[in-house]
L-rhamnose mutarotase (Lentzea miocenica), 103 residues
Amino acid sequence: METVALHTRLREGREADYDRVHATIPLELDAALREAGVHSWRIWRSGRELFHLVEVDDYRAMRAFLAEHPANVPWQAEMAELLEVEDDYSGAEPDVRLVWELP
């Protein structure tokens, strides 16, 4: 299993919208994430900054599975309205790298 950290940023003034939308994840998306091998996905927000921690069997495979999934496409369209940079699924590598951990 992989643990992947991600960072995204909200558009200015969209914090409450993001929190509201994430209060209830569509059941179809929940099922798709689990089918894609996601064990856990946690998101912390500090102002407009979002920090994700994803535990998944295979991050690249998950991205490929979800890219055109009918439960994910409308969700990503909704997220594109809220995020400063839309996730177009062109890359499969996370942009946050582990530099240190307490042994």
